[in-house]
Amino acid sequence: MHARGDGSFGRSAGSQTLKGAALILIAIVIGIVLLHTAPANTTTITSGNGTPPTTHAPSPSKPHGSTTTAASSATTAAPAPRPPAQVRVAVANGSGVTGLAARIRAQLNSAGYNTAAPPLNAPVPVPTTSVYYIPGYQADALAVATGQLSLPASTVKPMPSPTPVPSSQLFGVDVLVLAGADIGGASSSTTEAPAGNTIAPSPTVASRAAATTAPPHHTTTTAHVPATAPHPTTTAAHA
After folding, report:
1. DSSP string, 119-182
2. At residue 178, does pLDDT exceed 90?
3. pLDDT (tens digit per residue) in 74-108
4. 67-to-10, 35, 46, 71, 74 alpha-carbon distances in Å
């Protein structure tokens, strides 16, 4: 009501309004620019005890679907074979060659293995040799196959079910050697059991036979001395 009548008040109020609107518009633009230029995923933590705020840098992004696996190389050492005397071995003949199981058994016996089980016969002939083992005796079967019989490691197999020979004949057996036709010519001249083994040595006639000594032949030579008797001569006088 105290404004001048020339309209100066209205013009002044209008200019101030325009300036205020311009300042608000400038503030909005600056805010939008700051929001777009601020670093993403930045977390600012302000402690209440007056310590300076801590800023955590954003973690690097991972490709979608990627899986991070901790590199852990768990190396399990293969168990060492047991001493031969602690491994019970049975030998079954599936080659059709008479006496093959007994010869292989004697060979393993001489190497110190417990061959208390007698030689066995397979129900049916087999073309290739296999060395079967019960759980926990794979290393021992491998030692028998590769170390004693010169067989490849592929011949070592877990004991199947049903067993290659009647299970009643395998009571207490850890390793079974099923001799096939591929080693039908295998032979062993060793029949002696090592000390401490459960199998007694096989007698060998050549080494066990008692030595027979003939009494010495005495020849007595008697010199033949001809007896010479004097031939008496009687001379009669001729009367």
Report:
1. PEE-SS--SS-EEEE-TT-HHHHHIIIIIIS---GGGEEEPPSS-SS-GGGGTT-SEEEEE-GG
2. yes
3. 456 778 999 999 999 999 999 999 999 999 999 99
4. 70, 33, 34, 12, 20
Residue 3's pLDDT band, with cuts at 50, 70 and 90, is: low
Phi-psi category of 68—alpha, beta or left, where left has phi over 0 and alpha has psi -120 to 50?
beta
Phi, psi at 17, each rounded to 5°: -65, -40
CB–CB of 131/175 below 8 Å? yes
Q: How far is CA 20 from the centre of its chain?
A: 87
Q: Which of these, 6, 173, 32, 202, lies nearest to 92 by C-alpha position? A: 173
The pLDDT confidence band at residue 29, using thresholds 50, 70 and 90, is confident
Which domains can be identified in the chain, with CATH numbers?
A: 84-183 (3.30.70)
* Rounded percentage of the chain residues whose pLDDT exceeds 90: 43
> Collapsing DSSP states into helix, strand and coil, what is residue 8?
helix
